[in-house]
Design brief:
Helix content: over 70%
Radius of gyration: 27 Å
Largest sheet: none
Strand content: under 5%
Distance between the termini: 44 Å
Shape: elongated
Number of helices: 17
Length: 375
């Protein structure tokens, strides 16, 4: 085996990983580990690279080897926790994060990893553990954008959208290009009903990270929510037109129905044109061919049924004509309202459930102001 310049190779591998070339870094680190099997730093860097390539079982093996080489390495235990978390072995991930904190109680990253691992749990005690770990990370490193993102994610998971938004803003003040902060801020907008703002945020992250499929999928999720809102508005228009047809004179009802349809098409077209370009491309397409067909079918059904109502009113059909359609479309509207309202009710219940037990008597999270590190 040719001589290996370990120090130089470790620096080069780290630089390659930072540039997004984790596969090339793995090749270099493989040579280093083959030369020095107990090199703790090389094994930790190797675990980092496998994390970047999302090869979590191999990441875990590298982290375990690093721990065997240096059992007192906070870094190695932290990487092990991250690998276990990504493999959905959450109790083990929490235990590994706790061991990392025992070895370096005043380092902020182990607390951040513990917050991520504990956040998966559904018990109030799990959320409290995640919140306290995130808070400790912030107290140690108020200058670290990632620590603010972690606290924001904890609060977002609990349902505290306003406070979560504040922490994502803190992270962006420290690091304006932080993709995790931008993404989670857009998630917060989406959960708060700000669909266009969410799509704009997701689109900006996707444009800056074109190789990451997740960001593009987030844009698609925003487009899907926007399209569902447009379809819901169409169902409301049909139900309104049916009620109008039953209570006003036929000719007046026909004119009102036509006016509602024109308003629906006009407002929908304007709103569509105002969407960010990535959302416009995805709004009509849907998440799958089946969803696309459903979207097109419902839109066509709304317009066709509205025209049918206007035509029957123009010919003076009796109010009883509209009773059965009104019942069917009302059921559809109630079903749609249930789908839209249930997540918000769940969010409210979740916030009430966790607030007192996580934040204590005051029921409010602590706010840690970001500070830049001293030069």
């Amino acid at each position: 085996m040719p001589d290996v310049d370990v120090a130089s190779d470790l620096k080069r591998a780290d630089a390659l990983r930072e540039l997004g070339r984790a596969v090339d870094a793995i090749e270099i680190l493989g040579r280093v580990v083959a030369s020095e099997p107990a090199n703790h730093q090389a094994l930790c860097q190797l675990a980092q690279c496998h994390n970047a390539t999302k090869d979590y079982p191999t990441m875990l093996r590298a982290a375990n080897r690093a721990i065997a080489a240096n059992p007192h390495s906070e870094w190695a235990h932290r990487l092990r926790s991250l690998a276990l978390h990504n493999m959905r072995r959450h109790p083990e991930a929490v235990a590994a994060a706790r061991r990392s904190i025992e070895l370096a109680p005043n380092a902020w990253r182990p607390h951040m990893i513990l917050a991520d691992a504990a956040l998966v749990g559904t018990k109030p005690s799990d959320k409290k553990m995640a919140y306290e770990a995130a808070l400790r990370a912030l107290q140690i490193a108020p200058h670290a954008a990632d620590a603010h993102v972690t606290m924001g994610r904890v609060l977002l998971n609990i349902g505290e959208l306003r406070h979560a938004r504040r922490y994502f803003a803190h992270a962006l003040a420290l690091d304006p290009s932080n993709a995790a902060a931008l993404t989670n801020l857009a998630v917060t907008d989406l959960r708060g009903g700000k669909v266009v703002a969410a799509g704009r945020g997701f689109g900006a992250v996707a444009a800056a990270n074109p190789t990451e499929d997740m960001y593009a999928r987030n844009v698609g999720a925003s487009a899907f929510v926007w399209m569902q809102s447009a379809l819901d508005a169409g169902v409301v228009i049909v139900v309104t037109a049916l009620v109008v047809a039953m209570v006003v004179p036929p000719l007046t009802g026909a004119l009102v129905t036509l006016a509602l349809l024109v308003a629906y098409v006009t407002v929908g077209t304007i709103a569509y044109r105002r969407l960010p370009a990535p959302m416009r491309r995805l709004a009509l397409r849907g998440r799958s061919p089946m969803v696309t067909r459903v979207n097109v079918g419902v839109t066509a059904g709304v317009l066709a049924f509205g025209l049918w109502i206007a035509a029957t009113e123009a010919f003076g059909s009796p109010p009883a004509t509209y009773i059965a359609p009104l019942l069917l479309w009302s059921l559809a509207l109630l079903w749609r309202l249930r789908i839209r309202v249930e997540p918000r009710l769940h969010q409210t219940r979740q916030r009430r459930r966790y607030r007192a037990e996580v934040f204590g008597v005051g029921g409010q999270p602590s706010i840690v102001t970001p500070r830049r590190p001293l030069d």
